[in-house]
Amino acid sequence: MLSLADVKAARERIQAHVHKTPVMRSQILDELTGAELHFKCEHLQKAGAFKSRGAVNALLSLPAEKLRHGVATHSSGNHGAALARAARIKGVPAYIVVPESANAVKKAAILHYGGKIVESESTLTSREKTLSEVVRETGACFIHPYDSETIISGQGTAALELIEQVPGLDALIVPVGGGGLLSGCATAVFPNIKIYGAEPEQADDAFRSFTTGTLVESHEPRTICDGLLTTLGKKNFEIIRAKVTDILLVSESEVVEAMLLLWTRMKQLVEPSSAVTLAAVLREDRLFRGKRIGLILTGGNVDPALMAGQLSNSRQSG
Amino acid sequence: MLSLADVKAARERIQAHVHKTPVMRSQILDELTGAELHFKCEHLQKAGAFKSRGAVNALLSLPAEKLRHGVATHSSGNHGAALARAARIKGVPAYIVVPESANAVKKAAILHYGGKIVESESTLTSREKTLSEVVRETGACFIHPYDSETIISGQGTAALELIEQVPGLDALIVPVGGGGLLSGCATAVFPNIKIYGAEPEQADDAFRSFTTGTLVESHEPRTICDGLLTTLGKKNFEIIRAKVTDILLVSESEVVEAMLLLWTRMKQLVEPSSAVTLAAVLREDRLFRGKRIGLILTGGNVDPALMAGQLSNSRQSG
């Protein structure tokens, strides 16, 4: 299993190519939750998400002969943009299989970094089939978005930085989709700090895998959190079982409420996926009141149409 | 006329009660403008705007007998919230005359800090009449939102901090409404750094006053920038004439474009008024290309309905 040493090595490898992101606080949110909240701002990371950490680590870890024909992946967004950017650093092509339904801002980011978009249907089967074809035709090396050791140790550098920036955390809360970030952060902080995953009730495969001990291999998520639609990976599950304290569920309305707080109170334009952690703190008062908590704001690539809709609704109801 | 020493004294006075706000950069916005942009994040200031600097300085500069019955002002928003917060620090009441049309987020902030809202009609005449009545009835001390030496020197502390955080600025660009921030910042940086005001074309009283040399005493602004509706003050004009290099105008569509860039690229939820400076850099390529520029992001108290509308429009047109 990966160790803290792997995460430290990843940090050495990537630090010239990613930001050391700031940590923000909010007096209003501290008052509202009764906790001391420290937000690690990965929405201010290169390409707008923590995914740059894993992507750069994966690319810089590959031997030259594997990189020769470029890299490929399937991604609804942030991993694709991060991989395109990492490939550009190494001067090789990146082929990104993107479902038609993907958010326009994330597609634009892939193109901005010189990635080549290959469209597929939205089902996992179609995405995997399209990816296989791309890999066969181009000879590109597949970089899995989360079920990969170099991706996991790269994502874990976010937690490594945070615990140095904020000593004495009682707990760290991390969104969980495929589990790359959660397993990486758990590797970085276990056993010194309690680590929780936060997940939408309507995409609860990590919760079910964690509580039953058996990996849920497919599910049908219906959540506003477009970064948390993926199914927990095998390597990720193994680490999460061993090192994570618990997985906390939040409802869609709790996610929206937390996201609007982050927008209007902290003035930070984060994605819905980033809001699950604050939603969990608001819901699990018993666990977090009076504690010093780290939360990772995972990304800031919000679809303007989504934003507009949420804001209109909040106006009507509030 | 106020001097740098006054701004330095203001900083000593207020520093325990306001944030030293961070400075942010954006590689994408640097590439887009061809300049090196340093954004002073006053939207992350206490009460969500630079106005906390002047309000705290004004309150802490008043002799105790003047403070005895509290303070009063008229404000469409940020100055009112900042004054309410400053009054709470001193334990005295704050009466804020607010036009019915004021943005709901700003009204909520006034109440949050314990301010007492007195509604008036939206005309300046009605606001001033209501304020006079409040002052007569309560004995509160009127704190002008911008045409006041302690307000001006307080606002100038934003520039004082910025030039210490970012040495070697070629120019500083500041939004101008009533002129409190611009005159304060000019006092802090003149004559070492060129200082520009940025103003909406549809609220161009500062531009007209500056270019004709005669203070325009009333105007009918029609702009999305709800923080820039006020008319330039007398003390402000005097300083601006003496120390400001130029006032730059921007159109409403340029403001919206710049605001959307700040939202989607920098992930910072700033008010329309904050976007006039980036809009000016984008328009005045000749002045700013290749230069190291400071810009003040003045506030982050955005009306959700306004945001929703702008985002829907951007989606349709983009």
Oligomer class: homodimer
Overall number of structural domains of chain A: 2
In angstroms, what is the radius of gyration of chain A? Answer: 18 Å
The appropriate CATH architecture of the largest domain in chain A is 3-Layer(aba) Sandwich
Shape call of chain A: globular
Q: Strand order, main sheet of chain A: write it out.
A: 1-2-10-7-8-9
Q: How big a fraction of the residues of chain A is strand?
A: 15-25%
CATH topology of the largest domain in chain A: Rossmann fold
Number of beta strands of chain A: 10
Kindly state the percentage of residues in helix of chain A: 40-55%
Distance between the termini of chain A: 48 Å
Determine the mean pLDDT of chain A: 94
Q: Spell the H/E element sequence of chain A.
A: HEHEHHEHEHEHEHEHEHHEHHHEH
Q: Are there runs of chain A of 5+ residues with pLDDT below 50, and where?
A: none
Instruction: Please give the count of helices of chain A.
Output: 15
Q: Mind telling me the CATH class of the largest domain in chain A?
A: Alpha Beta
* Most residues in contact: chain pair: A-B, 24 and 24 residues
* Main beta-sheet annotation of chain A: 6 strands, mixed
Structural class of chain A: alpha/beta
Q: Explain this structure to me?
A:
The structure is a homodimer of 318-residue chains. Chain A has 318 residues and is of the alpha/beta class. Chain A has two domains: 217 residues, 3-Layer(aba) Sandwich (Rossmann fold); 92 residues, Rossmann fold, CATH 3.40.50. Chain A contains 15 helices and ten strands. In chain A, helix 1 packs across helix 3 and helix 9 runs parallel beside helix 11. The longest helix of chain A is centred in the middle third of the chain and has 17 residues. The mean pLDDT of chain A is 94. The interface between A and B is medium-sized, with 24 and 24 residues.
